Amino acid sequence: MPEDALHIVNVDKGGVFQLRGVGKNMEDMTLKVITKHLYQQGDYYWWELECDKGSDEKVWVEVEDDDDTIVSIVLEKLKLNDINLTPVDLVKIDDEEEGYIIYDKVKYAYEDSDEAIFYRFCDDKKPEKFYYWDFVDDDYSVSVENGVKKIMKYFIAKK
After folding, report:
1. CA-CA distance, 145 to 72, in Å (whole number)?
2. In the chain, what is the greatest distance between 2 CA atoms, to the nearest angstrom?
């Protein structure tokens, strides 16, 4: 994508964009980018736009730009207790390459797990390795990330 093209991949800190029909309530959102982060897994890259949707309420927008542009909206960040998982559960799911979690009465099946690198503020001089697990249902996904500081963070994203 050319850097001067009007495309979500090129939105940086301070940029503003609008999303329509987000989440279960099909909410329209005008988002201002607070900061931009970069993820890497092998030769594959994707971005995370940390955004303010007003009243200091954050939304995270993940953008993958490979053959197609895929935008995932992260509306909630949860604690491990919220999805009834333990680190032992995650290791077992990873070893067996199968399993599921239940959150808000929805069952999410294990899809994938792997190691990746997070570049806070897109600063490639300070890579942060982490491990992730992805779970999906028909409409949403839940991702679990275990960073270098052993802090778990979880989020639900609309596919």
Report:
1. 16
2. 46
Residue-level pLDDT at 10: 86
DSSP secondary structure of 132-150: EEEEE-SSEEEEEEEETT-
The C-alpha atoms of residue 113 and residue 134 are separated, in whole angstroms, by 6
Report CA-CA distances (Å) from 118 to 42, 64, 67, 86, 146: 12, 14, 22, 23, 11
The one-character DSSP state at 53 is: -
| Residue 21 token pair | 């029909």
Tell me the C-alpha distance between 23 and 5, whole Å. Answer: 27
Residues 6+ apart with CB under 8 A from 48: 36, 37, 38, 39, 60, 61, 62, 63
- The per-residue pLDDT for 118 is 94
Average pLDDT over residues 40-51: 93
pLDDT at 46 over 90: yes
Main-chain phi, psi angles of 79, to 5 degrees: -100, 160
Measured in whole angstroms, the distance separating CA 93 from the mean position of its chain's CA atoms is: 20
pLDDT above 90 for 87: no
Quote the mean pLDDT of the chain: 85
Asked if residues 128 and 148 have their Cβ atoms less than 8 Å apart, the reply is: yes
